[in-house]
Design a protein that fits this description.
KR_dom, 234 residues, Rossmann fold, seven-stranded parallel β-sheet, alpha/beta
């Protein structure tokens, strides 16, 4: 049965792969984007997740187009990498505001309709960096680690209402974000991954599709790694 789905940051990379995967499964999928144009074949709404007003307006447009949102995928995120000694406070707080507080704004806006229906799926897209750490990414790692505590708290709050909350944690994925790495950097990354390669965005999307499905109805508060074994033990 087709559900109303919202994927934040769904106009490129992992977010677009997730949106297309859920659409292929028969869901009505809307995506948020900050700039450019919405992807072809998907309902797009401009939205900056650092603004509660933007988030509220985006949900209003999606609800008018395809009904109350039944599946939320909080994927929107940014990086501002630099070493702690020279990291500005703005670089730290802006990454947390987008990645973690943005997920809070989206979940808060969407959860009341799910509670009324007594069903729903919330999926947060984190990162292997959130549990392993990474030099130069204290801000990004903190935001992604925070998603785990946030999701598990929501899982405990909302489980009795039939709402599951899970985290999908990608490792290095072949997207625009990783294509800027030098060949030496890529070799260093690949040498640390047991499977010896980066993930394809579709592999992350399929994990999201599973935890958002009826088949995963008894899975909540979980962190699903899609990292080729990079984060084992964390």
């Amino acid at each position: 049965m087709s559900r109303s789905v919202l994927v934040t940051g769904g106009n490129r990379g992992i977010g677009l792969a997730i949106a297309r995967e859920l659409a292929a499964a028969g869901d009505a999928v809307a995506v948020t984007y900050r700039s450019g144009e919405p992807p072809e074949g998907l309902f797009g709404v401009k939205c900056d997740v650092t603004s509660a007003e933007d988030v509220d307006a985006a949900f209003g447009k999606v609800e008018a187009e395809q009904g109350p949102v039944e599946v939320i995928v909080a994927n929107a995120g940014i990086t501002k990498d630099t070493l702690l000694a020279i990291m500005s406070e703005e670089s730290f707080t802006s990454v947390l505001d987008t990645n973690l507080t943005g997920a809070f704004r989206v979940a808060k806006r969407g959860v009341k309709a799910m509670m009324r229906k007594r069903s729903g799926r919330i999926v947060l897209v984190s990162s292997v960096v959130g549990l392993m750490g990474s030099p130069g990414q204290a801000n990004y790692a903190a935001s992604k680690a925070g998603m785990v505590g946030f999701a598990r708290s929501l899982a405990r709050e909302l489980g009795s209402r039939g709402i599951t909350v899970n985290v999908v944690s990608p490792g290095f994925v072949d997207t625009d974000m990783t294509q800027v790495l030098t060949e030496d950097q890529k070799k260093g990354v690949l040498s640390a991954i047991p499977m010896g390669r980066m993930a394809h965005p579709d592999e992350v999307a399929k994990a999201v599709r599973f935890v958002a499905s009826e088949d995963a109805g008894y899975i909540t508060g979980a962190v699903i790694p899609v990292d080729g074994g990079l984060g084992m033990g964390h």
